[in-house]
Specification:
Helices cover about 20% and strands about 35% of the residues. By secondary structure, the protein is α+β, with helices and mostly antiparallel strands.
Length: about 450
């Protein structure tokens, strides 16, 4: 947790996608050909990045402006390719990840060698592995369950590592890893243990994403502006406060009240603000400039991601793993995303974005922005779903929150594989996101596959 007690308060991306150009899948893959029309990058706004995002990516990822712009395009296209292949491969799908300075190389793993031609035909590299993603996720879930009754402070981090096709368990002591594994009864070849000296702490010392807010004498950072019906507010980290706690804004003016918070277990919360505050679809970027938020499409492993916080400002890195479990001194949190972005106390709750897509709110980590470090964020889509919130975006004013199943509806959070109907036609979600006005299944093939 990054929380402390405070005493004071693109226009260069129009090149071809190269290795990620989409082509039709062979019939044996049982997946329809990618749709024609606008590219995934155009549909998701990745071809129109803000100058703030590009500058921070240049600084923190060592890229030129052109490379940063191309990387965002490639990542958007790769997400759509990976989503369609995941739907096609089903239980044989074993994960997807990106490589290269411009994320030009997408790798998709499968447990079945006969899938390789279809993967390559879609523009991705193929890797044949032993375990499917579902099997790895089930093993990781056993570790989550065991952590409820087993001490894990010396084995604080575990996650599905799609690049090694294992569940990775990081521990400061081998005995702690052995105790946790014994409690699960897991097959040892499926789990790798890595020794580490890192001990994550919540990133909190003590309405625009990344701005400071205060809870008595403590400071955290705003995540993303949200709506609960007509009530305005923001999402942040659960360890920053508890239900009923009053908040003050960056200027120490009365701001709002925590409506709900969960920590440990998850690290999520939301604050309802008073009438003096207006929710905006922006995150604070470099030099106080606004970075727009246009949606919440989940980024792939290996994709670039930037963070805004009230202590260290705007920094970028890459997504390392999704669905990571982390043990802090206060307890274990699950479902986190691990990144290479640096952070420091006071940055807790702040926003992570990939391009213009909201990703999550800062939870905790190790290291700092001088020597570097590892951080974890609570993904935004589960926060929106848990509390019935709608992300504030530049697309338009949000509509009503949809109900589970049935017809597509704005405001509903959809996971990959979720099926809906729109205008009498069935569609399958291929990338996790919250539905935004105007971005219905027929209009955004980067997010939806017609059945």
């Amino acid at each position: 947790m990054l929380h402390r007690h405070a005493t004071a308060a693109c226009t260069a991306a129009l090149a071809a996608v190269g290795a990620l150009v989409l082509t039709g899948l062979p019939a044996a893959a049982a997946s329809p050909a990618p749709p024609t029309g606008p590219s995934a990058a155009a549909e998701l706004g990745a071809d129109r990045p803000s100058a703030e995002v590009l500058r921070a990516m240049q600084r923190d990822l060592g890229l030129t402006r052109e490379q940063a712009a191309q990387r965002l395009i490639n990542e958007a296209e790769a997400g759509a390719v990976a989503g369609r292949l995941r739907a096609s491969l089903g239980t044989r799908f074993a994960g997807a990840w990106l490589r290269g300075a411009t994320s030009a190389t997408l790798t998709v793993a499968t447990t079945y060698a006969a899938d390789v031609p279809a993967i390559k035909a879609a523009g991705a590299q193929a890797e044949v592995v032993r375990y499917g993603l579902a099997e790895l996720e089930a093993a990781k879930a056993k570790l989550d369950k065991a952590a409820v009754t087993t001490k894990t402070v010396d084995a604080p981090v575990w996650y599905v590592d799609v690049r090694t096709n294992t569940v990775m368990l990081e521990a400061t002591e081998q005995a702690a890893a052995d105790a946790l594994l014994t409690a699960t009864g897991l097959d040892r070849p499926l789990v790798r243990v890595r020794t580490t000296a890192e001990r994550p702490q919540p990133l909190a010392y003590d309405i625009r994403g990344g701005d400071a807010f205060y809870i008595t004498t403590s400071r955290c950072s705003v995540g993303f502006s949200v709506l609960a019906g007509t009530q305005q507010g923001f999402a942040t980290a659960g360890h920053c406060g508890k239900e009923g706690d009053a908040t003050a804004g960056f200027n120490k003016v009365a701001q709002g009240t925590f409506q709900a918070a969960e920590f440990p277990g998850q690290d999520m919360a939301w604050v309802a603000t008073n009438d003096d505050w207006t929710a905006t679809p922006y995150v604070r970027g470099e030099g106080e400039r606004n970075v727009e938020v246009t949606g919440s499409t989940e980024a792939l492993v290996g994709a670039s991601v930037c963070r805004s916080g009230s202590t260290t400002g705007w920094h970028c890195g890459t997504v390392e793993q999704h669905d990571t479990s982390v043990t802090y001194p206060q307890g274990t949190v699950t479902g986190m995303t691990r990144t290479t972005v640096c952070a420091e106390p006071g940055d807790s709750g702040g926003a992570y974005v990939s391009g213009s897509q909201a990703q999550g709110v800062t939870s905790g980590g190790s290291g700092n922005c001088t020597s570097g470090g590892t951080t974890f964020y609570q993904p935004i889509n589960p926060i929106l779903q848990a509390y019935g919130l709608t992300l504030k975006t530049t697309a338009s004013e949000a509509g009503e929150v949809g109900k589970a199943g049935g017809a597509w509806a704005t405001g509903k959070v959809y996971a990959a594989g979720h099926q809906v109907t729109y205008d009498g036609v069935a569609y399958r979600c291929i990338q996790a996101h919250q539905a935004q006005p105007g971005r219905h299944p027929a209009a955004v093939p980067a997010l939806w596959q017609r059945l």
